[in-house]
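Lecture 7 notes: from sequence to structure.
We start with the chain below.
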Amino acid sequence: MESRNPIFSRQAKGNQQGWGMPTPTPDQLQGMYDTPSYAPPAQRAMTIDDVVVRGFITLGTLVVTAAAAWVLNLGMVAAIVGVIVGLVLALVISFKQSTNPVLILGYSVAYGVAIGVISHVYNDLYAGIVFQAVVGTALAFGAMLTVYSLRIIRVTPKFTKFVVAAGLGLMGLMLVNLLAGFFIEDGIGIRAGGPLAYVFSIATILIGCFFLLLDFDQVERGVRDGVPARYSWLMAFGLTMTLVWIYLEILRLLSYFSSSD
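Predicted structure tokens for the same chain:
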């Protein structure tokens, strides 16, 4: 029976006409035996679904750990340890661009402990403030995702430089305030609860929201460029770290208004 496969049909006709494949020489046959008959599997490219799943795992680990730390009421010592361990892991992951899920989930556990303890303290002082901060963080995430999807704000190289520079400036001010606090009460006043503290917290939240836009752009570029799927862990880490930043700053801002009531 004649094959309907055009490749096989063409090869059969070619053999009938006398122009088939030439007979391999002994050296060619030996080379065929020496060459592996398989190719190494290609790495699967990252998809949006990969980032979503890893994001739920990373953020879910943080939330579960925070809830456990809240219920157990571990105390500020545990929170300080969690912040230090989480900061070290975050620096290692960021500078090495590590996609190791153990390191990333370790960060989630460490910061989960810190956030659970801090949230418990804030909620004891101002009842209901944690729920408000969680809602505010969710709204910020949804708003930035909408802004990015509709291209209301485009992530250009100039915009990226501005956001990174602003973020470094904020960290510099917080460091100066910390050092000044050893010599002057309330430091330079950006965390003292006054008008300057309101402005600083609002600016910090806005910069955090802009970093969400950078995170979304990084995910989109990674999917478009076909980076390996393991990088979805790194994308999830970036999103989680930014959400932690926004949540803590919203919590602090709400405490200013609560304390003034």
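Points to note: The chain has one domain: 48-259. The CA atoms of residues 48 and 220 lie 8 Å apart.
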